[in-house]
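User: Sequence recovery, please. Input:
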């Protein structure tokens, strides 16, 4: 399983634009190449939003990156000039909730 994490620095966007971005992040959970997705705001830096998605394998992550349902979010981030940091990690599995 591949976990894909993205940090969005929303310090230079207004509240409406940020909510629109976060609504788009929520929509990513419905893509066929996404096992699950979660998004939220950082607990210590109120200007940061984050996204975590899970993908079955590297091929599914590659499909996600070019998926037509993902492109509007990418375009929105670029149009708003939101700085991002992202990373992808390969994990054996995602632990179940205890």
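Assistant: Recovered sequence (98 residues):
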């Amino acid at each position: 399983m591949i976990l894909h994490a993205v940090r969005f620095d929303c310090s230079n966007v207004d509240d409406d634009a940020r909510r629109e971005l976060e609504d788009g992040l929520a929509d990513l959970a419905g893509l066929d190449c996404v096992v699950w997705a979660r998004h939220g705001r950082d607990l210590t830096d109120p200007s940061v939003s984050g996204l975590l998605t899970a993908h079955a394998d590297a091929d599914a992550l590659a499909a996600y990156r070019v998926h037509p349902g993902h492109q509007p979010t990418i375009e929105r981030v670029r149009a708003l000039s939101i700085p991002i940091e992202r990373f992808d990690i390969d994990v054996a599995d995602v632990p179940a909730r205890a």
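The longest helix spans residues 15-27.
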